[in-house]
Design brief:
175 residues, Double Stranded RNA Binding Domain, alpha/beta
Length: 175
Amino acid sequence: MKYIYKILVVSFFSILISSCATSLSIQSDSDSQYDLSSYKTYSIISPTLDGQDEMIDINPILAQRISRSIDSVLTQKGLKHSDKADMTVKFFIGSKREIERSTDLGGYGYYGYRYLDSRDQRYIRSDKDEISIRFHDKKTNDVIWYAFTRLKRANNQNDQASVDSLIQEVLSNFN
């Protein structure tokens, strides 16, 4: 009986912890006028970060990692990289800085003849990255498939395996 109770408790906490994990919110869309299965080759165009002051905090090595990951995922899906490709893949990286205000209610009190307010306000900087991947028809330059996601900036963006995992999840709805 104790063994079954321990299994139930461990299972409950495992489910509770896994339900608290945040999943990546990915928005994707495709143009129904184009048959995605008809495309067999692709080329990748990386974003240019030169001369754009607002892109100064974007890591150019991260763009290289994303390009390698897109190439790897599309190869796994049976597509081939070519200079004379059927479609062009463009991706864009953005960075958004948000300041969040947090208030510690603390205590209130009466100090002599004045009212004492001991609330503490903190400002927390939150950097969020945005990635947009667009597949263009080579002949018309129309966008045939699109994906967008926002994620909190993590230290593991310096790791090719974590970027591969992210791009794999973003491109999972393609084709």
